[in-house]
Protein 1
Amino acid sequence: MKVLWVHAHPEPRSLSGALRDEGLRTLHGLGHETRQSDLYAMDWNPVVDRADFPRHAAGRLVVTTASRDAHASGLLSEDIRAEQAKLRWADTVVFQFPLWWLGPPAILKGWFDRVLVKGFAYGVRDPESGRTLRYGSGGLAGKRAMAVLTIGAGGPSFGDRGIHGSLEDVLFPLHHGIFWYTGMAPLPPFAVHGADRLTAEGYAAAAAGLRDRLRELPGTEPLPFRREDSGDYDEDSVLRPHVAPGRSGTAAHYVR
């Protein structure tokens, strides 16, 4: 495999940093190729602004249009083009981050905002039908993505009746709204709970669990989301009445 590891934690000596190092060592030992984007070490700019699109330095900025045009003409800022080149190279992408306020740190959200531009990751059209490709298709179709995350709270509080909501629902915007929307097949996440209270024994177990997940990565089945082009959705992108009867919310968009 060709694995891009995108890491978003400000402290290299953190639990996240240790797990990242363990993960990359494991992948190398298994013979996989790796590249890394350590966003804090790179001093990654997470803010979309006019500097991303040199030809749109004046006038009203419409980000979707400006990003599409800059991508098509090869004139996106150099840092964005470098990250897109890594994505093109990879067949699997690991996004590692601590869960802050039930989402990724701003620096990673900004990576998504700036790198996954229109015409590259989304807003791509089928040349034959003219249909916009998304939710199972798109600019990143054929790739797979997995979240590796550390969480301060214990596992039960992220269960079906846990106060934070199920981890599946918390990660739905990432798995479905970013990975699946752009065509990347989302793999089940790897989560370490109680991160702020982890003992040496707890770290050893977490590292072993991560190594096991990475060994199994080539054959891991993705989350079973419905494709938009499957016929399950109507012209308003709403599930047809006969699909997943009795289910609503995020659960209805899984094939189960």
Protein 2
Amino acid sequence: METSKKQKVVALLKALETGETEPIKVINPNKYIQHNIQIEDGLEGFAAFTKILPNGETKVNTIRAFTDGEYVFTHSEYNVFGPKIGFDIFRFEDGKIVEHWDNLQEIQQPNPSGRTMIDGVTELKDLGKTEENKTLVSNFVDDILVNGKMDKLNGYFYGDNYIQHNPYIGDGLSGLGKALGEWAEQGITMKYDMVHQVLGEGNYVLVVSEGQLGGKHTAFYDLFRVEKGKIAEHWDVLETIPAKDKWKNNNSKF
């Protein structure tokens, strides 16, 4: 049975831990566009990165993996120069990986509702509703996070039933409101300026956005689980984007 793109990506990420070389053959040696701006471009950059990983300390545990056409996106727990949670996106052409994006954040303590950045529902379903769910989540991000149309907020949820995995925010719209109020008191603002990618499979949708958090240029990766036409669960990873003179490639974060 042919190995799926999803399986190939999970094996490639695991190879960072095991040091296996066979999974790396899924990368196109002649074209590999790297958007992790801490890593040099191309297969050579990937190889150089693997060589500096500490022996025996690197761990990769992929909890969720999804396919959207020629894209595979994953949600993983890492120990790569310290414990982190990350999203990775890989784009395929002719069966080979030709492009990669990611976002990494240091693991934080459980949030006010006791949830971690990686736990929660993993069941993939509603494959026939992928496009419908992508539209719902895209509209939510555009209405609420980009344009601040808070009068539309309640329409995306079943009351206060909303499972939250952001480490600083509790469950429900009440938890979100409480956190945003506390941030405002501290002068911390969060602004989404532009959406770059919306990917989905079944009841899961990942949105990649660019904006500002506390005055810092930030990449936002938000994963939503949709249930019966409403947003039911949310995970995210936020990464500050360094100044361009610190980038190791010129492909940009997005």
